[in-house]
């Protein structure tokens, strides 16, 4: 239904999860270490980790006690690439809109001049 | 050359991507260019793209379907539903879009039109929210300040990590 990029951005839409990813960017980390900077309950942190795992942004170790989390860079790269493309799309669309608005205004001025110039029309 | 500004996640909501630009034209004119299908088709999309608008019913609940044709023959589908329409001011719609046959990206987009310095500022906000994010309560806000800094680091990380992204000609 929804694709990887959508779920990546949805997962990134939360500041706590972004902070967790930023922490993981520094290397593999235990859940306890991840939770340390946050004033948040362990279950709340676990929920965030589940969302990240489901979105494919992190992988988790198998040891039951110490399931270390690891960043998966590929989906983040995809999202960054998409963002780049989107920005380019709009840079160029905005350029075209700019041009179009300019031609509209030139046309308006011309029309106004023609109206005032000859054959006064009463409204 | 007018500046397009882009920000990621720095807005109040902390979960938005924002693009904005000021156009040297009256607001009514910019609004019309954005909401009249005949005009939209004239400028929408990058250089070399053309747009076929199949349907554009600009009112809450109305559909907007268009196909963008890339210069290389690739078609991109855009399907939207308008959520909010405030004449000359605000346009909100959900958008599903992507390359034909490829994965579709979904988000909500709010476009605002404001008078500024004799022109019009257009600001686009992209909102990607999971249902879970929408339902989340405010309990988590204690971490926002720290998260902001961390997100900055993540951005730096992404910038460093993926700097080899090459522009597709």
List the keywords.
heterodimer; A: 123 residues; mainly alpha; two-stranded antiparallel sheet; 5 helices; 2 strands; 5% strand; B: 169 residues; alpha+beta; 8-stranded antiparallel beta sheet; 8 strands; globular; disordered C terminus
Briefly say what this structure is:
The complex is a heterodimer of chains A (123) and B (169). Chain A contains five helices and two strands. Chain A is mostly helical and 123 residues long.
Tell me what you see in this structure.
The complex is a heterodimer of chains A (123) and B (169). Helices cover 67% and strands 5% of the residues of chain A. Chain A is built from five helices and two strands, in the order H-H-H-H-E-E-H. Chain A has helices spanning 4-12, 15-24, 31-35, 42-54, 73-117; strands at residues 58-60, 69-71. In chain A, a hairpin with an 8-residue loop joins strand 1 and strand 2. In chain A, helix 1 (4-12) crosses helix 5. The model of chain A has no long low-confidence stretch (mean pLDDT 86). The radius of gyration of chain B is 18 Å and the shape is globular. The two termini of chain B are 21 Å apart. Classes of the chains: A mainly alpha (123), B alpha+beta (169). Chains A and B meet through helix 1, helix 2 and helix 5 of A and strand 2, helix 1, helix 2, strand 7 and strand 8 of B. Chain A: One of its GO terms (molecular function) is DNA-binding transcription factor activity. Chain A: Residues 1-91 form the HTH arsR-type domain. Chain A: InterPro entries: ArsR-like_HTH, HTH_ArsR_DNA-bd_dom, WH-like_DNA-bd_sf, WH_DNA-bd_sf. Chain A: This is Metalloregulator ArsR/SmtB family transcription factor.
